[in-house]
Amino acid sequence: MIFNSISFCIFFIVVFFLYFFPLKENTNAQNWLLLISSYFFYGYTDWRMVPLLLVTTIIIFFLGVAIHKSGNSKKSSLFTTLGVLTGLGLLLYFKYFNFFIDSFSSLLNAIGLNSNIGTFNIIMPLGISFFTFKLISYIVEIHRGKIEPTKDFIVFSTYIAFFPTILSGPIDKPNVFIPQLQKKRSFDYNLVVDGCRQILWGLFQKIVIADNLAGLINGVWSDIPNQSGSVLFITAILYSFQLYTDFSGYSHMAIGVGKILGFHITKNFNYPYFSRNIAEFWRNWHMSLTSWLTDYVFMPLNIKFRNFGSFGMILAIVINMVAVGIWHGPNWTFILFGLYNGLLFIPLILSGSFFKKKKLKTNKHGLPSLSDFFKIIGAFILVTLGFIIFRAEDISQAYKFILGIFDLSIFAIPYGIGMAITPSFFSILLFVFEWYSRENEFPLSNLEFKINRPIRWAMYFAIIIAIFWFESTEQQQYIYFQF
Amino acid sequence: MKKFILSLIVFFILLGSIGEIIIRVFRLSSDIPERVMDEFGIQRFKLGQSGYYKKAKQKWNVNKFGWMGTSDTSKDTLITIIGDSFIENIMNPIECNQGSILNNLLPNISFFEAGRSGVTFIEAMEISKVLNIEVEPKYQLIYLNPTDLPESISEVQLYSDRLQISIEKNDIQTSQIKSPGLKKILYNIKLLYYLYSKYPILVDKQNKGEIDYDFSEREKANYTLFRNFFSYITVNYRLDNLLFVLHPDMDKEIVSLMNEYNLKIILLDSKGDKKWEIGNGDKHWSCYGHNRVSKQVGDYLSEILNQ
Which residues of B touch A464 (CB under 8 A)? Predict the structure, then answer.
């Protein structure tokens, strides 16, 4: 079930009315409802994965209690290791097992040992990369003494399976989300309206821009040798737009749905394409994942390597970024994508600008300074190059794509990209809109303080009409569902 | 909560009104004509109606016989075109109708269309009987897709809103117009009809040109019924001027049965060309598809008319 579907609409209306009418202000009953609806939502696509989710949730719940009871003893470390291994084990088996077998087999063949190791037919559970990270962070946070385990299994399992975020995040930390489940939640007009606006913004990004770009981009990627450099170059840029609007559109919808139910879900994007360097970009892109990896991968590594000075930090960053890459899936392209991004940090660390967090300054027209403007363009080009590796099916395809761009045909007229005109126009409109509202959580937030109702509503109507008018004839799956 | 629900209601009323205006101004959904039951138990369109095809400048008009589409009866040779929603073709502009394209290919012949969504094989036969009297055609083209035959026989599946035949009782069973009040609302509030046809969850198979029929082993038990059906039509209808245009996906055994009963058939061949379909779950023919179909039918007609 995806957010932009009639089935989700019906599902959510039912949940909403049950949540705020018969179960009004009964936190326990509301949590039950959220849990049941979350499992229904999760099982709607493929019910076979529901037992897996339930069993892992039970295991981690009891391990959490056991860790807390064990205090600082060795037992606590043992239970923590067990919990982390349960989470990682799930990921390794369902997501990476075939990749390891395949790579091992290729290695044996490369050194002359004929191997014919078959792979297994493993179905990857939807959202596995997201809910296992929640499970792991719960265990680690208890071990670190930052949170106490909840004694309420319903609360814990709702945190893990919460339907707005289970399929594609954002990945909420337990210390942020569990207390919200334990708190009384009543109807908050301002929060609900803000949630509706955020859903609307997400729908606009996904339906009007991302889905309409998908057809052209997929077409070009499936026929790279016959494309001119100019078409490849434009497609690479458009893919950056597509990936952003697809994923951030989904995240906005998830956060919006959460707000309507009275939750504050972790922000996932903070206008990443206005970043002036790669460090800034990764602070603003898929923030819940980078924050998770910063806490559990980068920080421990950075502490471990602190005696090696800048080199230690570079090593920690590169490992962290490779982890970001691998998280996306079992493919060498993702490893290379992570490595590429990690290496881009080196000049920043060596020059000391990695630590500087300067705010964007604008002139009286609200535009960035010339130097900031070029930095933004430079960072965007570097990110776009990385996304070529990210989008490719294998490294050789990425190589062909990049090679195709750096060709004299980059100056040729880019034929056959007419269908990208409308979504490109809306992308530019989106970035202009984002630029002037970048201090806000999302462009439509806090509008009631800026413009009066008739204009505000006219704006909403225009967005809704654009969504219906420009809805792509073929509904596209969310890119991040595959991870 | 009250404030929110009130705002939401006002918001959606305003949005709905704007949406209705936009759909009407830009003709984002076709106008659907109202139906009436005639004395023969055939559903025709109420006389005097007119409306617009989707995104088209031309109007459709219901002719004096109660049908839409091409209705030229002026030339010496007249050929009628009978069928379901593929022939009614409300989803495409009128220049993509079989009658219009065939008329371009064979300008010396008049074409008269009698198409309506939900017409079954047996209803097409009944329509042909009436048209033989009303317009006296030289030939009648009956367009059939794989579901038209099983849907004709009440013993296979009973449909109260379609004209069917009971093979066991040897009796034609007339249809009823289903939920006319609801349909009137749906067709008059353009926004509702737009949403109804845009989102597949709300659209029934008939409106999506569904042509898949499961001719599995279980269904083959119906072949006796199918055989009896053909026996019935050979006795009860004039067949010498009928030409059956069969959808490319028509079941081979049905085609064999039709050959066995010496029915004149034109088996269409799409060669797997997906462009024939409108797409997005709608299996009706696109303008391209209609052109390809007309080409094959036109070639056949030229051949028999020159004989």
Answer: 15
Q: How far apart are CA A42 and CA A38, in angstroms?
A: 6
Q: How many CA atoms lie within 13 A of A258 on its CB side?
A: 26
- Provide DSSP, A156-188: HHHHHH-TTTTTT-----HHHHHHHHHS-----
CB contact under 8 A, B15 and A6: no
CA nearest neighbour of B102 among B291, B303, B307, B306: B291
The torsion of the CA quartet A203, A184, A131, A56, rounded to 10 degrees, works out to -150
**Interchain pair A474, B199: CB under 8 A:** no
B85-104 residues touching A, CB cutoff 8 A: none
Residue B295 has a CB neighbour count (10 Å cut-off) of 13
Taking one residue from A and the other from B, the number of pairs with CB-CB distance under 8 angstroms is 28
Confidence at A359, pLDDT banded by 50, 70, 90: confident
ipTM of this complex prediction, to 2 decimal places: 0.81
Task: Quote the CA–CA distance of A373 and A336 in Å, as a whole number.
Answer: 28
How far apart CA B26 and CA A424 sit, in angstroms, is 24
The overall average pLDDT reported for chain B is 88
- A192 touching chain B per CB within 8 A: yes
Tell me, what CATH number does B283's domain have? Answer: 3.40.50.1110
Which residues on chain B are in Cβ contact (under 8 Å) with A7? Answer: 201
Question: Which contiguous run of DSSP H or E holds residue A257?
Answer: helix A229-260
Residues of chain B with C-beta less than 8 angstroms from the C-beta of A6: 199, 201-202
Question: What pLDDT digit, counting tens, does each position of B106-160 carry?
Answer: 999 999 999 999 999 999 999 999 999 999 999 999 999 999 999 999 998 899 8
Which one, of A356, A259, A317, A293, lies nearest residue A129 by Cα?
A293
Structural domain range at position B34: 2-305
Residue positions counted in chain B: 307
Average pLDDT of chain A to the nearest whole number: 92
For residues B143 and B86, is the Cβ–Cβ distance under 8 A? Answer: yes
Longest dimension (CA), chain A: 73
Q: Give the model's confidence band at B206: pLDDT under 50 very low, under 70 low, under 90 confident, else very high.
A: very low
**The whole model's pTM is what?**
0.82
Paired tokens of A153 = 């299994």
Model confidence at B31, in pLDDT bands (50, 70, 90)?
confident
Helical axes A229-260 vs A211-221, angle rounded to 10°: 140
The residue in chain B having the minimum alpha-carbon distance to the alpha carbon of residue A465 is B19
Alpha-carbon span A258 to A111, nearest angstrom: 53
The pLDDT of A6-27, averaged and rounded, is 93
B15 close to A (CB below 8 A): yes
Q: What is the mean pLDDT of residues A313-318?
A: 96
Q: Residue B165: beta bridge partners?
A: B153, B172
> Which helix (H) or strand (E) element contains residue B267?
strand B265-267
> Does B11 sit within 8 Å of A460, measured CB to CB?
yes
For chain B, the domain total comes to 1
A contacts of B19 (beta carbons < 8 Å): 465, 468
DSSP one-letter code for B71: B
CB contact under 8 A, B202 and A473: no
Q: What is the mean pLDDT of residues A374-401?
A: 96
